[in-house]
Design goal:
The complex is a heterodimer of chains A (519) and B (515). Chain A is built from 21 helices and 5 strands. Chain A is mainly alpha-helical and 519 residues long. Chain A has one domain. Chain A has a 3-stranded antiparallel sheet, with no helix packed on it. In chain A, strands 1-2 form a two-stranded antiparallel sheet. In chain A, strand 1 and strand 2 form a beta hairpin. The model of chain A has no long low-confidence stretch (mean pLDDT 92). With 515 residues, chain B is mainly α. Chain B has a domain of 223 residues. The chains are: A mainly alpha (519), B mainly alpha (515). Chains A and B meet through helix 17, helix 18, helix 19 and helix 21 of A and strand 1, helix 5, helix 6 and helix 7 of B.
């Protein structure tokens, strides 16, 4: 038996592993595995501090490693992973955003009962067991390794060199997110329902993605992105396979992005998930998924640009219009921000549709601007509370500007950034993608985007109006003073929103130095 | 180094003031007010320094130029420069802000929603943004502050305004944002025409030198013009103005109508005409018709108003019609008159809104019907209101007369019928001003008026006196202003490629024109 195997596998090449190029991944995944061990081996009380040190340490190290690797342009792990300028930029962005979002997750002062997560996810909602655990102050520290696995998946996602690696990254980032979504401390049934919805729809979209991969494999005979690109330059024989595969792979990714009509999960999931997780998800998932989308479209499918660009054109329009219009009708802050996220995804798609290096640069600028504002906005949402937890109904925010001018002012800043008012990061993002759009000839798309921006501005302004121009309700929620964790997170996001808005050149230069994807 | 960035300083000083005020601890209201006054006066002093250093002989060129790279990736510069037109608008802004600060001394007291320091901080940040808008010579920089100045006004109306403040503030902001976003597309289009990402530029003089194909020009012109027509405002895009001006505090209304809206007409003159000369000539008939409708319609609506503030707001709709008419008459007299009109209108509207504000705060009502016989109990107030009103209806000897006359002459030279129709506006102006005066100031004094309305106090006299002096002085000696305006207008005329029509009757000298 063994002799037989040896004979078959004799010429098996030892894969060369370029450890330095994938060192950020190793740092994150290594810490995640360690985190699982911590859960198994350490006493309960010791877990949280150790997990926090592991998580933040791993993220800081990974960020440092990304910077160390900044000049790497390489295809490693036998083509499974490609590291290049845009990939490193995306990885750095994801890690930085995750770091800030994790600070909000680590907050333990705003909720009197503990952190943002259920004391034990397996305890039945409303049971005596749950109450006892809450009284004892138990914390579910498994969230930290889950978070790290998810971040690891996100960091791998845009670095994938073939579609199979990309699929695995997709699953690694998604599965922990499904779990995290279901772990809210308050409104647990809503949270669990959201988790299940997210899981079922997510599994469905993963299947579509995989089907698309199969079709592209059928066409090209390889799942490697550069291999598919090469096959496309030859005389295309089975064009139907390419079109079907492109569409299905794109749908899988657009689901994660939350583009219409694949956005149906976002309001429920954003509302049900613990708010700190929502912030993480809204920012990091979107950056990772856009990174992967850019990579697939630009590296593998650049040859059929004229087929996918019109499709994305339609989806971008739908996403902007649906997101903006439906957001107006929302009465819940988290749902409104969810639809706002949908609309924002539509604006980012304008940069993708441009299908040019400028478009890609614009997309990256937008993602940075949106990501930080998004984490910040959700962090503010965790602070406005009444006795039952977060006060997310819009009417409860009335008069917040009088009660806590600072918090309301910060939230207004994020809303103005979402609305794309100059001197905020959001404007630079919009300007960059719109410029790329017009330069590539998509003037009609940009005009629609501008009209959608005006509609979207309406509901952002409405919230500002509510906070500042209305008198506070007598039994309104209070703004909780958070620990330094959330304070730092909000301060960082505010700083990024303003600095990128006023002095964007360093970011623009960084992105243009990053260049384009290598094949 | 002698290269002091004077222009940047004019804008930065009020911005720093806004920041200092925002950081003041609660309860230091008196200090906040003093600081606001000090910073606004410092900005005025700097504007005077700019004026002194300005070379009137080269008023058509951009002077005191500053330029630094801001976003080289997109060819965007932080570049400032001042020509004759921008200089006068800069002076208008910096003169009005201290007056508004002093006039609004008690406007934010006891406000349940916003603090006193916040009120003055917003006014100063609005001043900074406006100064930058007038001084920018990079189209992107202009756009940034064109949009950014909406935000302080939004909060000024929404937090400190009257009963309908929320509605008015949102309407104002949505109109402004919508116009701004349309302009954004056009601005990006202009950038792409100039070379696109990596090679294009936003530098105004460079862009003004481009020759753009006529069809593209028309589209880009439309994008810019709609934004400016909303800001100015031109009928039919004016409906936000009466709401915003009526609900705002008097000081905010002054800055809104007197300064902010001038950005619209200023930008039509500089950006629409110089960047898109062919399209401007193409659009002239339409704009002239809209301007005429604005003149007559605004005046008619003003006559019909029951609310003092709305009446004054509608007079502005009519006057902005005159300004737009002067700009698009495409004669040097018309454009010089329009520019002078912007300045004069700024001072007269300030007088109208502020005095009306004093009256309203005493009586506690904005309705004209609630007043009567004020001149008996408050002769100074009534007298200054009459003088400002006379300036508004362009009585000879007061400032507006010169500008209105120049606009009409300039229009008549090219569009005879339009010039004749526009004169209807003058007749109607006499009606709305005199009727307003008659209804509020003359006749029997109701008891409630004689109880509540007392004459101008010292602070209020200090506020009004400079306005009255300026209005009378500019009525008699407009020439220094015209000397500054004319070279800049000539530059615009050259860019548009039009010359004044030859006179039908030989004249000996044509003042203010160059062949």
């Amino acid at each position: 038996m063994s002799a037989l195997l040896a004979a078959d596998l004799a010429p098996f090449p030892v894969p060369s592993i370029e450890y330095s190029a994938i060192s950020p991944l190793i740092a994150i995944f290594g810490a995640a595995v360690l985190g699982v061990l911590v859960e198994a081996l350490l006493p309960r009380t010791a877990r949280r501090p150790v997990q926090l040190v592991l998580t933040f340490g791993a993220l800081a190290v990974a960020f440092g490693l990304v910077i160390w690797q900044r000049d790497t342009r390489a295809t490693v792990l036998e083509g499974a992973v490609t590291i290049d300028g845009p990939t490193l930029f995306l990885q750095g962005t994801i890690i930085a955003l995750a770091f800030v979002a994790a600070l909000v997750m680590a907050e333990r002062r705003v909720d009197v009962a503990g952190d943002d997560f259920a004391p034990r996810a397996s305890a039945l909602p409303g049971s005596d067991y749950e109450r006892d655990l809450t009284r004892l102050g138990w914390l579910q520290t498994e969230v930290w390794p889950l978070l790290l696995f998810s971040i690891g998946g996100m960091v791998l996602f845009p670095a994938s060199g073939d579609l199979l690696t990309m699929f695995i990254a997709l699953e690694v980032l998604s599965l922990p997110l499904y779990l995290l979504t279901g772990m809210a401390r308050r409104r647990r049934l809503l949270s669990q329902e959201a988790s299940l919805k997210y899981f079922v729809l997510g599994a469905f979209s993963s299947a579509l993605f995989l089907y698309g991969v199969a079709l592209l494999y059928g066409f090209a005979g390889t799942v490697s992105l550069s291999g598919i690109a090469e096959a496309l330059t030859d005389d295309a024989q089975q064009y139907g396979l390419v079109l079907g595969g492109t569409a299905l792979v794109a749908i899988g990714l657009l689901f994660k992005i939350g583009a219409s009509p694949f956005h149906q999960w976002t309001p429920d999931v954003y509302q049900g998930a613990p708010t700190s997780v929502t912030g993480f998800m809204a920012a990091c998932t979107k950056v990772a998924a856009f990174g992967a989308l850019l990579k697939v479209l630009f590296v593998a499918l650049g040859g059929v640009r004229w087929d996918w660009a019109p499709m994305l054109w339609v989806i971008a329009v739908l996403t902007m219009v649906v997101g903006s219009i439906v957001a107006i009708t929302q009465t819940d802050m988290k749902r409104m921000l969810a639809y706002s996220a949908v609309a924002q995804a539509g604006f980012v798609l304008v940069g993708v549709v441009a299908a040019s290096p400028d478009g890609m640069a614009g997309t990256l600028v937008y993602l940075v601007a949106y990501g930080f504002a998004s984490v910040g906005a959700f962090a503010v949402v965790t602070l406005v509370r009444d006795a039952t937890g977060e006060a997310t109904h819009l009417s409860q925010w009335a008069g917040l500007g009088k009660r806590s001018p600072l918090v309301a002012g910060v939230f207004a800043l994020f809303l103005l950034a979402f609305a794309g008012i100059p001197l905020t990061s959001g404007f630079i993002g919009k300007f960059a993608v719109f410029t790329a759009g017009v330069a590539s000839g998509a003037v009609a798309l940009v005009v629609i985007a501008v009209v959608a921006s005006a509609i979207a501005a309406f509901f952002y302004i409405r919230v500002i109006l509510l906070m500042f121009f209305h008198d506070p309700a007598p039994d309104g929620p209070a703004v909780v003073v958070p620990s330094s964790m959330t304070t730092i997170a909000i301060a960082v996001t505010v700083a990024v929103t303003i600095v990128v808005g006023v002095i964007p050149q360093p970011l623009l230069a960084l992105i243009s130095d990053a260049g384009v994807f290598v094949r | 180094m002698t290269n002091v960035p004077w222009l940047t300083l004019v804008a930065v000083v009020p911005l720093v003031g806004a920041g200092v005020l925002a950081l003041l601890p609660r309860g230091r209201d008196a200090l906040a007010k003093m600081l606001a006054l000090v910073f606004s006066l410092a900005a005025l002093a700097l504007a005077i320094v700019v004026t002194v250093r300005f070379d009137v002989g080269r008023a058509g060129d951009f002077q005191l130029v500053e330029s630094h790279e801001w976003m080289p990736t997109f060819g965007i510069h932080y570049s400032l420069g001042v020509d004759g037109i921008a200089l006068l608008l800069l002076l208008l802004t910096t003169v009005l802000v201290p007056i508004v600060v002093l006039a609004g001394w008690h406007d934010a007291d006891a406000n349940p929603r916003g603090s006193v320091k916040g009120f003055f901080s917003l006014i100063l940040s609005l001043e900074a943004a406006t100064v930058w808008v007038f001084l920018a010579t990079d189209v992107f920089l202009f756009y940034v502050f064109f949009e950014a100045m909406l935000v302080p006004v939004y909060f000024l109306i929404g937090r400190y305004g009257g009963p309908q403040r929320s509605y008015a503030a949102v309407k104002f902001l949505l109109y402004g944002l919508f116009g701004g976003l349309i302009m954004l597309v056009a601005m990006i289009g202009l950038y792409v025409v100039s070379g696109g990402p990596g090679k294009g530029t936003f530098d105004f003089p460079t862009l003004a030198g481009l020759s753009i194909d006529p069809t593209t020009q028309k589209w880009l012109f439309a994008g810019f013009f709609i934004a400016f027509a909303i800001k100015a405002p031109l009928v039919p895009l004016h409906t936000w103005l009466p709401d915003a001006a009526a609900e705002a505090t008097p000081g905010t209304a002054v800055l809104l109508v007197g300064v902010l809206d001038k950005v619209g007409t200023f930008a039509m003159l500089r950006y629409c005409l110089e960047l898109f000369p062919d399209a401007s000539r193409w659009a002239t008939p339409l704009v002239v018709v809209l301007a005429l409708i604005g003149i007559v319609y605004g005046a008619l609506l003003a006559i019909g108003q029951k609310d003092l503030n709305r009446l004054i707001a509608y007079t502005s709709v009519s006057h902005f019609g005159f300004i737009a008419l002067g700009i698009f008459a495409m004669t040097s007299r018309g454009q010089s008159g329009a520019t002078l009109y912007m300045i004069n209108h700024g001072f007269t509207i300030a007088g109208l809104f502020l005095i009306a504000g004093f009256l309203i705060s005493r009586r506690g009502s904005r309705l004209i019907a609630d007043f009567g016989g004020v001149q008996k109990v408050a002769p100074w107030l009534a007298g200054s209101f009459l003088l400002v009103g006379m300036a508004s209806l362009a009585l000879p000897g007061l400032s507006s007369f010169v500008s209105e006359f120049l606009v009409l002459v300039g229009t008549f030279e090219r569009y005879r019928a339009a010039g004749i129709i526009a004169t209807i506006g003058i007749v109607l102006a006499a009606l709305y001003i005199l009727l307003m005066y008659q209804r509020t100031m003359t006749g029997p004094t109701p008891e409630v008026v004689s109880d509540r309305v007392h004459d101008l106090g010292v602070r209020e006299r200090v506020v009004i006196a400079p306005l009255l002096v300026i209005i009378v002085a500019l009525g008699f000696v407009p020439q220094p202003l015209l000397d500054v305006i004319n070279p800049a207008v000539d530059r615009v005329m050259t860019a548009v490629g039009t010359t004044d029509p030859p006179p039908t009757v030989p004249v000996q000298t044509a003042e203010g024109t160059t062949p």
